[in-house]
Design brief:
It is built from 16 helices and 20 strands. By secondary structure, the chain is an alpha/beta fold. The strands form five sheets. Strands 1, 2, 9, 10, 11, 12 and 20 form a seven-stranded mixed sheet that branches. The protein is globular.
Length: about 525
């Protein structure tokens, strides 16, 4: 279903079925993947659910848009969670729970690294092939390589042995411990650890340790010392277990299909519906107010906005859903521990296919200088999803989506002319860097769309266009990450500001957990755990 037909089929502002006289069980603010998983899971349990989305299409940074015959993914197209076995395939599970599925195309490699000193590594889907390729570059670290990635598998097996639901529900914890006690104990062991602690226990070569930094940075935008081991166990193993699988039709199909499942089970979604406040009565969340002035009541409210956009009191640049005076102390503590990561400078390019080298992988990461890894526009990410799904571009052409970290501060206080000039100059520099892996790229561009942190802030409704929270200091793994309940009764959060963090599979986990916790509070959950 296209974005336009989806919008036409769902509830729009002013629709009688979504009038202020209705009382909903749950209102979800935002239709990112975390919000949609929460909403669709609750609808499948029988709750009356309404999703309110400020934009025209669902998905947030997991959406897609169309230009001149090209279908571009808003964010990254390296997708975990679409395997067929075990419990960690959260996108497969979320869709199946609302009687939906998405066709996927397996990617033979997670990505190819192009790193300083000629260190080029393609992460093969086959685990033993990947180990062999990496060991060939670092033969003196053969034992350490196998031991480190083997430890990641230990973490993954613990995760994969249990249905991943709310850690805030004691009944769930008791049931899952009874089913898989060793997995629970194993997982608890790794909660306080970061990847760097584990890597240095097995590996001494500094260049290899830098490679592991980049292995973490490519999805967490943090080096190994600040990346939780639980997350790495999922990513470094699932890319070989379930594999990287691209949704046919583009990443936006995931959100569109979740919306179809939501509606199939009686839920609704409204577009062009910007929530400006969560309504509080006697300290409890009882509904929301829209920019239009309309108020919608609900028994529970879920914010899929970032925690900076949800709670006031942090000196943020925009109004928040909860005023500073009502913000719980725990949220102020969270702000001291975590800061917003950079946003991105993004280029969505339509290019001629004849310049793409033979055997080119779908995903690449480029860095010329190790000292620039966390710098403004340091690391360059590349996705070419048309290598997997040619239907996303006109015949004889490819999509090249490239993005590099860029902070909102670099784009503030510019006049319109200065802003346009900076966009063009930064885009040109980025394209020149990409000539190292796609020679002739500059002359093959047929369509170009430039997005900046200001673009991401405007269309995604995220403070500074941030990718998500990263530790402001070294923290003990995932232990300080907040869960879904907040200090305000009736208000929950979901998405990358909650356990376990960024990435589509991670926010899907957050969505499962949030829906389960609300289901427990509303008495909707089945007694038995999922099979």
């Amino acid at each position: 279903m296209s974005a336009s037909s989806l919008a036409a089929a769902t509830v729009q502002p002013g629709s009688p079925s979504a009038s202020e006289g209705d009382r909903w069980d749950v209102v979800v603010v935002g239709s990112g993947i975390g919000g949609l998983v929460t909403a669709s899971q609750l609808a499948a349990k029988g709750a009356k659910v309404l999703v309110l989305e400020r934009y025209l299409i669902p998905g947030g940074s997991g959406g897609s848009f169309r230009r001149e015959g090209y279908t571009f993914d808003v964010g990254a197209s390296m997708i975990f969670g679409f395997g067929r076995k075990g419990h960690t395939n959260l996108l497969t599970r979320a869709l199946a729970d609302v009687d939906e599925r998405v066709d996927t195309i397996p990617d033979p490699a997670q990505l190819e690294y192009h790193l300083p000193g000629g260190l080029n590594v393609a992460v093969d889907r086959d685990y033993e092939r990947f180990l062999a390729d990496l060991t060939a570059l670092f033969p003196h670290e053969a034992k350490g390589i196998r031991a480190f990635y083997g430890t990641c598998w230990q973490v993954f097996r613990c995760l994969d042995a249990m249905p991943l639901l709310s850690l805030e529900d004691p009944a769930y914890l008791a049931k899952v411990f009874f089913r898989a006690p060793l997995a629970c104990l194993g997982l608890a062991r790794w909660l306080p650890f970061n990847v760097g602690d584990v890597a240095r226990a097995y590996i001494k070569d500094e260049q290899l340790l830098r490679f592991i930094d980049m292995e973490c940075f490519c999805w967490s935008v943090m080096p190994a010392d600040r990346t939780p081991m639980i997350n790495a166990g999922m990513v470094f193993s699932d890319r070989h277990a379930g594999g990287i699988n691209y949704p046919r039709g583009g990443v936006g199909v995931i959100a569109e299909t979740l919306v179809a499942g939501l509606r199939r089970h009686g839920g609704e979604i409204r577009y062009r519906s910007r929530v400006v406040k969560v309504l509080l009565e006697d300290g409890r969340a009882v509904g929301v107010r829209l920019a239009s002035g309309e108020e919608i009541r609900a028994r529970r409210v879920v914010s899929n906005a970032t925690r900076w956009d949800t709670f006031g009191g942090g000196g943020s640049e925009a109004s928040t859903l909860i005023d500073a005076a009502d913000t719980p102390v725990a949220e102020r503590t969270w702000r001291r521990r975590y800061r917003p990561s950079s946003s991105f400078l993004s280029l969505h390019l339509g290019i001629r296919a004849d310049v793409v080298p033979a055997g080119f992988h779908c995903h690449h990461l480029l860095l010329e200088n190790w000292q620039e890894m966390e710098a403004e526009q340091g690391v360059v990410f590349v996705s070419m999803p048309t290598l997997l799904d040619p239907s996303l571009a006109p015949e004889g052409h490819h999509i090249l989506h490239t993005f590099t970290p860029s902070a909102i501060e670099a784009w503030k206080h510019l006049s319109p002319a200065q802003y346009r000039a900076k966009k063009e100059a930064d885009a040109d520099r980025l394209i020149q860097r990409l000539e190292a892996i796609v020679p002739g790229l500059a002359g093959a561009i047929q369509l170009q769309e430039i997005g900046t942190p200001r673009t991401h802030r405007r269309f995604l409704g995220r403070m500074g266009g941030s990718y998500g929270p990263i530790p402001a200091l070294k923290l003990p793994g995932l232990l300080p990450m907040p869960f879904n309940r907040t200090g305000i009764s009736g208000l929950y959060c979901v998405g990358d500001s909650c356990f376990p963090g960024q990435g589509l599979n991670a926010v899907a986990f957050s969505g499962f957990a949030c829906a389960h916790r609300i289901g427990a509070d509303l008495g909707l959950n089945p007694w038995a755990l999922p099979a």
